């Protein structure tokens, strides 16, 4: 068993311990293993981080964007060098299989290279003025100090999605990671420090969300809050930011569905369903939580899915033979168990799984069996509420139109999928599905960093992370007029008779 990592705060270019309690991050596959200890920060630590970020912003915003981007390029190169080390740490700390953990780090690398390229763009616009001898243009301006509150399920990728475009745009940041991924966040910030970023540009504060996260959201010298987590917490963050006039970006829950029509390639659809429902043990905001199956193929598809699911191997993420890793902690494990019990009470049938794993080699971890629920009705709680575990609900539909209606009938709208060979149906689905992401003949998971990421309804507040849309989160538009006529010109008046 390895020695636990010591995770301190990183404030103004210095690693600093807090004079308060020490918390633990444990391996969810082996709860006896303490992966890391981290500080339980106070409002004083938050104040220090915000002050450092505010001071650094004064000079960082004046660094030319291409030069800022070179630091991010260096971070990407360092992530590549430390990819396997980070992947092993991700698997130990939050449990996802190594194959997925490597993908998590690769997403951070991809984000670095993409964000670095934006440093030589950050495009504004030049447009004609309606007045003679007058020039008009728009430019992007940084916002200021950004508080970035990130979850545990993508402990490298999601912080990179936020930190990298924020820095390229000229902002300074304070990262508050989830308690279950403190070690991953520490190693990531070590890489940012190694890249040579000036003190105060990137800061890290550990602690409890209700304490440190809340203090950051409420802090008067924080200009922007970017939050990824549950819709319930996100609503609270949005309310506080609204009252305090902060820019806020919320990326929250999902109840994603995959439609399988009668003309679908069933083997391909099963492949997508297994990966979408059970990848990361279902602990993705884009996980496939509902399968909407046309009545003509439901029986055959269900048999194929059950057979594939029965062969999935539970185990530690660091075991190369593992297909499905553990649930992140005891609280979440009990949540998943409770939802399966609710499904039974509502009349659903458990086709496979449905229990906490009982195998002797798994009893020291938080493992839940990959679970298929059948005879689920669209209004059942398990068809409406986010479970965040390896549980998928089967819902029978009679037509394409019914499938679209059922898919849209939730409070969420993040990711969606349809399997069909009918090009007309595919384009109708693109038009009619209420979601920020739609896949045709692919699973609901698999976002790429150069495309917008986010959703509608309770999934978000209209912003999109990743791609060029991230620049709209982390910059303000400024409109500039240059009048070189030498006289007063009144728009809408002097040029209209």
End-to-end distance: 83 Å
CATH homologous superfamily identity of the largest domain: Aldehyde Dehydrogenase, Chain A, domain 1
Q: Mind telling me the CATH class of the largest domain?
A: Alpha Beta
Poorly predicted parts: none
- Described by its quaternary structure, the protein is single chain
Tell me the helix content: 25-40%
CATH topology of the largest domain: Aldehyde Dehydrogenase, Chain A, domain 1
Strand order of the largest sheet: 15-16-17-14-13-19-20
Task: Break the fold down into its secondary structure elements and pairings.
Blueprint: E1 5-7, E2 9-11, E3 14-16, E4 22-27, E5 30-39, H1 43-60, H2 65-81, H3 83-94, H4 98-118, E6 125-128, E7 134-142, E8 145-149, H5 157-168, E9 172-176, H6 182-194, E10 202-204, H7 209-218, E11 224-228, H8 231-243, E12 247-251, E13 256-260, H9 266-278, E14 288-294, H10 298-310, H11 330-346, E15 349-352, E16 371-374, E17 391-397, H12 400-408, E18 412-413, E19 415-419, H13 423-432, E20 437-440, E21 456-457, H14 469-474, E22 475-483
Parallel strand pairs: 1-5, 8-9, 8-11, 9-10, 11-12, 13-14, 13-19, 14-17, 16-17, 19-20
Antiparallel strand pairs: 2-3, 4-5, 6-7, 7-22, 15-16, 18-21
């Amino acid at each position: 068993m390895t020695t636990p990592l010591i995770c301190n705060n990183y404030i103004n270019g210095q690693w600093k311990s807090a004079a308060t309690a020490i918390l633990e991050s444990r391996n969810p596959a082996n709860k006896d293993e303490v992966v890391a200890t981290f500080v339980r920060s106070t409002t004083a630590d938050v104040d220090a981080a915000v002050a450092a970020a505010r001071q650094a912003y004064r000079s960082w915003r004046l660094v030319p964007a291409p030069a800022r981007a070179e630091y991010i390029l260096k971070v990407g190169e360092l992530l590549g060098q430390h990819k396997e080390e980070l992947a092993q740490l991700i698997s130990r700390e939050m449990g996802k299989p190594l194959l997925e953990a490597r993908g998590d780090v690769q997403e951070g690398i991809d984000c670095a290279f993409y964000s670095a390229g934006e440093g030589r763009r950050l495009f504004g616009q030049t447009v004609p003025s309606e007045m003679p001898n007058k020039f008009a243009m728009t430019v992007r301006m940084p916002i200021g100090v950004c508080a970035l509150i990130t979850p545990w399920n993508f402990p490298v990728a999601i912080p990179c999605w936020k930190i990298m475009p924020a820095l390229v745009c000229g902002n300074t940041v304070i990262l508050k990671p989830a308690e279950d991924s403190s070690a991953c966040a520490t190693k990531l910030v070590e890489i940012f420090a190694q890249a040579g970023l000036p003190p105060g540009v990137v800061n890290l504060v550990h602690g409890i969300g209700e304490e440190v996260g809340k203090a950051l959201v409420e802090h008067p010298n924080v200009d922007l809050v970017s939050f990824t987590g549950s819709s319930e917490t996100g609503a609270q963050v949005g309310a506080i930011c609204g009252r305090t006039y902060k820019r806020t970006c919320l990326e929250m829950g999902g109840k994603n569905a995959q439609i399988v029509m009668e003309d679908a390639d069933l083997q391909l659809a099963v492949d997508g369903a297994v990966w979408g429902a059970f990848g990361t043990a279902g602990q993705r905001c884009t996980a496939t939580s509902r399968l909407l199956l046309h009545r003509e193929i439901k029986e055959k598809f269900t048999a194929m899915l059950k057979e594939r699911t029965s062969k999935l191997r539970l185990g530690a993420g660091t075991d190369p033979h593992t297909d499905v890793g553990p649930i992140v902690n005891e609280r979440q494990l009990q949540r998943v168990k409770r939802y399966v019990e609710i499904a039974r009470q509502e009349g659903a049938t458990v086709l496979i799984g449905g229990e906490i794993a009982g195998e002797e080699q798994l009893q020291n971890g938080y493992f839940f069996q990959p679970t298929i629920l059948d005879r689920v009705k669209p209004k059942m709680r398990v068809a409406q509420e986010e479970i965040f575990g390896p549980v998928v609900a089967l819902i029978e539909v009679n037509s394409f139109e019914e499938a679209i209606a059922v898919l849209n009938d939730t409070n969420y709208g993040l990711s969606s999928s349809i399997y069909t060979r009918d090009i007309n149906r595919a384009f109708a689905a693109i038009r009619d599905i209420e979601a920020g992401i739609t896949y045709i003949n692919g699973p609901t998971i698999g976002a790429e960093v150069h495309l917008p990421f986010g959703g509608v309804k309770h999934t978000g507040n209209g912003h999109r992370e990743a791609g060029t849309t991230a620049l709209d989160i982390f910059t303000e538009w400024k409109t500039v007029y240059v009048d070189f006529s030498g006289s007063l010109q009144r728009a809408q008046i002097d040029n209209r008779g």
